[in-house]
Design brief:
alpha+beta; 4-stranded mixed β-sheet; two-stranded antiparallel sheet; 8 helices; 6 strands; 47% helix
Length: 229
């Protein structure tokens, strides 16, 4: 259906069509008639309404775009590159199923109508079938992206955990380093460790401090500094 066709149908029912600025959002519809356009127009006439106000949404390129926020746990990554949080992603890249909807660009896709008569107000929300299908495919694509994103994040967490373990092991190995155990202060030990162990600066600062504190306690408890000096 086109906006002009909807306007003509309203006028044919003896009601005055009034196009409003905005989009057809079903969340703003209020009480909806159980039925389609014909049922709505019949009910509007029974209420004694004189006019029907309506919004029209038109399908455009922006409908293919999804914003990925830092908190989002949605969708499948594009084929040739990773999607960073905060970026805009194209549904046509997420899923080949979305490409076919390009033929509908520029078409009216949804309509929200409302009319008032007496103390009653009623609405009607109409979607083109292809727009309903687009919404379903969109949710499928985003769900798949969410799944794959979760898997990638889990893999990254595992890699980071392994890296932390390796760094801590390298740090503990300094107990066999005569220069390290001879250092009297935790600050000095930390500086020496950062200089000696490659990549140690990637370890969380609080964890590094705690590990150095523990090592200093072990050195003192075992008397390693006294044994070597």
């Amino acid at each position: 259906m086109k906006s002009s066709e909807l306007s003509a149908a309203i006028a044919a029912a003896g009601l005055h069509p009034v196009l409003l600025q905005g989009i057809a959002d079903s969340d703003d519809a209020g009480p909806l008639v159980d039925g389609g356009l014909n049922e709505f127009l019949a009910a509007a006439k029974v209420l004694g309404a004189k006019a029907v106000f309506y919004y029209v949404s038109t399908f455009d390129e922006n409908d293919f775009v999804v914003e990925v926020s830092p908190e989002a746990s949605v969708s499948s990554e594009p084929a040739d590159r990773d999607v960073e949080d905060g970026e805009s992603i194209d549904l046509r890249i997420l899923s080949p199923n979305m490409v076919g909807f390009k033929s509908h660009l520029g078409k009216d896709c949804a309509f929200l109508l409302h009319a008032e008569g007496g103390v009653a107000k009623l609405g009607c929300y109409i979607e083109e079938d292809w727009w309903t299908a687009f919404g379903e495919k969109r949710e499928e694509a985003l769900a798949e992206w969410s799944k794959q994103r979760g898997e990638r994040m889990a893999e990254a967490d595992d890699e980071q955990a392994k890296k932390r373990e390796e760094l801590v092991e390298s740090l503990h190995a300094l107990l066999d380093d005569a220069t390290f155990v001879a250092i009297r202060t935790q600050q000095g030990m930390k500086a020496y460790a950062l200089k000696t162990v490659s990549g140690l600066d990637e370890l969380d600062a609080r964890m590094l401090t705690a590990e150095i504190q523990a090592l200093k306690g072990e050195v003192d408890a075992r008397g390693l500094n006294r044994k070597k000096h």
